[in-house]
Design a protein that fits this description.
Helix content: 25-40%
Distance between the termini: 62 Å
Order of helices and strands: EEHEEEEEHHHHHHH
Strand content: 5-15%
Largest sheet: 5 strands, mixed
Radius of gyration: 21 Å
Number of strands: 7
Length: 251
């Protein structure tokens, strides 16, 4: 395959960026999208040019590091992570636009790399439990109803890639935050911090400058792990419950 790539190049956070055009040839349909970018970078290095900076780690769709907007879609035309997107999703001769996540809370570091530490701070605000550490408890020591266990597992699948934010027209992080709140709040181990967790994590999300949620649903459509849109409603319910309880105790 021979492709034309229009790639966002930005030397640092303070500089202006622009799209640069490159031609790549000999691309196998079985390559992943990141392998195709590796091929581009090898050619740029041989020419003495600066390679394109982009995030990646496991390349197995698990870590959430890869983060690209491809032809206007977060992670590209298929519902998967960028590293698991293969070039057979494109046609020979295609022109492909490659950009970083676009959100005020995700400032560009260089080229296609953005700073997603805002997600880390949201998790630090309440994404933990106070269960004592030590020897592993007996698996059945704390009974968990299967619907609750299924819900916890479903929300725990979030890999924190940020596609939900990139796809949202408001740059909202509600789907990510709801996944991190709900997967602990439905479990008995998360009960001690149930109220403080949702209040603190939503408060930190707002402090990071993410946009407001208007339930357009683009976040759930773009999520490569299928976090459901009703997750946001469940978190809103938790937030209202915690707010009312806090008012009663004068918090």
């Amino acid at each position: 395959m021979k492709l034309t790539l229009r790639v966002w190049r930005q030397p640092n956070a303070d500089a202006d960026g622009a799209m640069s055009t490159y031609e790549v040839d000999g691309i196998s349909a079985d390559m992943s999208f990141l392998e195709m970018l590796d091929t581009l970078n090898e050619e740029l290095i041989l020419k003495g040019e600066d390679p394109v900076a982009f995030d990646h780690d496991c390349r197995e769709g698990i870590c959430g590091a890869c983060s690209l907007v491809i032809n206007g879609d977060a992670h590209g035309p298929e519902r998967t992570t960028t590293c698991q997107l293969h070039m057979r999703a494109f046609e020979d001769g295609d022109t492909i636009d490659v950009e970083p996540w676009r959100a005020a809370a995700f400032p560009v570091v260089k080229d296609l790399v953005v700073d997603r530490s805002a997600f880390d701070r949201i998790i630090q605000a309440g994404g933990y439990i106070s269960a004592p550490t030590g020897a592993a408890p007996e698996a059945h020591a704390t009974p968990v109803p299967k619907p609750d266990a299924d819900s916890a597992f479903e929300h725990a699948e979030c890999i924190g890639c940020g596609a939900c934010v990139a796809a949202c027209p408001n740059g909202s992080a509600m789907l990510f935050t709801s996944a991190k709140v709900n997967h602990l709040n439905v479990l008995p181990q998360g009960a001690p911090e149930r109220e403080t967790r949702v209040l603190d994590m939503v408060g930190q999300m707002d402090a990071e400058g993410f946009g407001g949620c208007t339930l357009t649903g683009e976040c759930a459509t773009a999520c490569p792990k299928g976090i459901p849109l009703p997750s946001i409603a469940a978190m809103n319910k938790e937030w209202l419950r915690a707010t009312r309880k806090a008012r009663k105790v004068g918090r």
